[in-house]
Specification:
The chain is an alpha/beta fold. It folds into two domains: about 170 residues, Rossmann fold (3-Layer(aba) Sandwich), CATH 3.40.50.1970; about 180 residues, Dehydroquinate synthase-like - alpha domain (Dehydroquinate synthase-like, alpha domain). Helices cover about 45% and strands about 20% of the residues. The protein has 13 helices and eleven strands. The longest helix is centred in the middle third of the chain and has 21 residues. About 50% of the residues are buried. It binds nicotinamide-adenine-dinucleotide (NAD) and glycine (GLY). The site of nicotinamide-adenine-dinucleotide (NAD) has 30 residues, from helix 4, helix 5, helix 6 and helix 10.
Length: about 350
């Protein structure tokens, strides 16, 4: 097992990464302060992994809420089901909400923990690659609104993240690829050696080689933990973690939540960001092709979905959490391995990039 820490002073917390962690009750148990726990999971993950979690909770009083599976259920209505469970079981302020699942469950359960009685304990047990490398770390919690993705939420850190890499064995291939998009993101924004490592090891990752997956998860979490420790509430550097996300969120909102996976939309968003960076003279064409090739090898989509026009994109991109005083800010690549926040990308170039891609 590898242990990394998100260094946030007295809210510092560990990320445990390794095989078989669900079978180690002491890891889970030592991070539950009280006697009450609510496990939040969904109809796909609960049949696979709820039992070991229940066993690890030992004699503690625990209840379970099982939500429908899918991004389209990451809503205020579903969130209310978690509040109803907490209230109907009379859980108090010393209870712990445990998210068992992918990023949808983690984001939603985390927001429930942030709101219930103005904040109760929270723990993340991520079971997708995407959640193990990104969403479970850093404390962003949210639900979607029909007008915009992750628009209703809070920063709320967990007490620990427990990433049992054995859970990835049951993950569908398409979900594995979606997780790889966020892994590749770290290489592109701030870690060129990791990008090169990914180019050399992508086949092993696709073949679910345990050592390669562990290395990729650890390196991703190390990058994310560093960024979050430096800028927890995204006043600056943390925005770089959103490479591809402004375009990607426009895709997810535009075609309807759950049609494309989040990682798929981010992959196309990263290609659009690389193309725009090339138009600005920051990347050579060969470098854009290198990004495209890696994402293609990861079996990710390379083109935006049909049906969205450049104007649709621009309208949807205007509802983005990085918009400041009405001005769009995009994460672009100054070079491979170095992302920047660009608030002055000429709208003409943004539109041309979209027109060419569409
Ligand atoms: P997801 O939570 O929908 O999980 C993907 C699918 O895999 C679901 O059907 C799920 O039930 C299933 N699944 C989960 N674990 C499984 C397992 N071990 N075996 C078999 N099936 C399993 O999607 P995701 O890709 O994990 O997360 C995407 C969400 O994360 C989006 O809502 C996105 O906005 C959010 N996100 C948040 C952050 C953050 O910082 N908070 C970062 C990135 C993404
Ligand atoms: N996934 C982006 C962030 O955590 O900031």
């Amino acid at each position: 097992m590898k242990t990394l820490y998100v260094e946030l002073g007295d809210r510092r917390y560990p990320i445990y990464i390794g095989p078989g962690l669900l079978a180690r009750p002491e890891l889970l148990g030592s991070h539950i302060p009280g006697q009450q726990a609510l496990v939040v999971s969904n109809t796909t993950v609960a049949p696979l992994y709820l039992e070991p979690v229940r066993a690890a909770l030992g004699g503690r009083r625990h209840e379970v809420v099982i939500l429908p599976d899918g991004e389209q259920y990451k809503t205020l209505d579903t969130l209310n089901e978690v509040f109803t469970a907490l209230l109907s079981h009379r859980f108090d302020r010393n209870c712990t909400v445990i998210a068992l699942g992918g990023g949808v469950i983690g984001d939603l359960a985390g927001f429930a923990a942030a709101c219930y009685q103005r904040g109760v304990h929270f723990m993340q047990i991520p079971t997708t690659l995407l959640a193990q490398v990104d969403s479970s770390v850093g404390g962003k919690t949210a639900v979607n609104h029909p007008f915009g993705k992750n628009m209703i939420g809070a920063f709320y850190q967990p007490l620990c993240v427990l990433a049992d890499t054995n859970t990835l064995a049951t993950l569908p291939d398409r979900e594995l690829s979606a997780g790889l998009a966020e892994v590749i993101k770290y290489g592109l924004i701030r870690d060129l050696p990791f990008l090169e490592w990914l180019e050399a090891n992508l086949d092993a990752l696709l073949a679910r080689d345990a050592a390669a997956l562990s290395e990729a998860i650890e390196c991703s979490c190390r990058n994310k933990a560093e960024v979050v420790a430096a800028d927890e509430r995204e006043t600056g550097e943390r925005a770089l973690l959103n490479l591809g996300h402004t375009f990607g969120h426009a895709i997810e909102t535009g075609i309807g939540y759950g049609e494309w996976l989040h990682g798929e939309a981010v992959a196309v968003g990263m290609i659009l960001a690389a193309e725009l960076s090339a138009r600005l003279g920051w990347l050579y064409r060969e470098q854009v092709d290198r990004v495209r090739r890696l994402l293609e090898r990861a079996r990710l989509p390379l083109q935006p979905p049909p049906g969205l026009t450049p104007d649709d994109f621009l309208r949807l991109m205007a509802v983005d959490k990085k918009v400041k005083d009405g001005q769009l800010r995009l994460i672009l690549l100054r070079e491979l391995g170095r992302a920047v926040i660009a608030s002055d990308a000429p709208p003409r170039l943004v539109k041309e990039t979209l027109e060419q891609a569409l």
